[in-house]
Amino acid sequence: MSIRILAVNGSSRRDSLNQILLDVAVVGARIAGAEVTPIPLADYSLPLYDGDLEAEYGLPDGAHALQALVAKHDAMLIATPEYNGGYTALLKNAIDWISRPCNDGSSGVALLTGKVAALVSASPGQLGGVRSQTGMRAVLDKLGMLVIPESFALSHAHQAFDVEGKLKDENVERLVSGVGAALYRTAAQLA
Ligand SMILES: Cc1cc2nc3c(=O)[nH]c(=O)nc-3n(C[C@H](O)[C@H](O)[C@H](O)COP(=O)(O)O)c2cc1C
Predict the structure, then answer these.
(1) List of long-range contacts for 163-168, beta carbons under 8 Å, 24+ apart
(2) Ligand 1 first shell, C-beta below 6 A
């Protein structure tokens, strides 16, 4: 059976280390058999969530588009960069908009509930963004998502890749692509 995974990065930076890491996990998921859709969150032009804005104008087009994408996928592979010990506003803001009621009045939260997720993170620091993963795991858990135990936090990430974006350490490469593969396996078992 076909398993569709939405791959999302919480950084919109051009040379995002999290994006390079996410790409490795995406390859792992694809090799395992998943259909993966990587999306750049910045393309969805979401304003900061504001209840008055929502009440007056409804959801922005980008939020509807993200809701439709989530609805079409079985699982989410998320790179969650760490800013000041937590996840990024870009990522949380997208989740907040997705969680709001859809065009037809159905629940945005229900789109996420029951879906499987996996987390990776990369940071030049020593902890690799693991605190961001802890925070993001709690958010996804609250939304009823199943966050698998397989994850990877890449420390000293600015030194971890070669010029082609390949991880220098083969063991790390295996573990990161293993996160994507584990996400595929779990989603397939639940489907
Ligand atoms: C506002 C800000 C706060 C940051 N705080 C942390 C932090 O708490 N822990 C950490 O490991 N790195 C921190 N960093 C460094 C980021 O992890 C680093 O810039 C990383 O490369 C961002 O991800 P990206 O390369 O995917 O854009 C911070 C960076 C910024 C801009």
Answers:
(1) 165/20, 165/23, 167/24
(2) 11, 13, 16-18, 81-85, 123-125, 127, 129
Q: pLDDT value at position 5? A: 98
pLDDT in tens, 92-110: 999 999 999 998 999 999 9
Residue 1 has pLDDT above 90, yes or no: no
**pLDDT mean across residues, the chain:** 97
Q: Are 117 and 80 in contact (CB under 8 A)?
A: no
From CA 167, how far away is CA 145, in angstroms rounded? 29
Identity (one letter) of the amino acid at 115?
A: K
Fold for domain 4-190?
A: Rossmann fold (3.40.50)
- Among 160, 184, 164, residue whose Cα is nearest residue 18: 160
**Domain residue spans of the chain:** 4-190
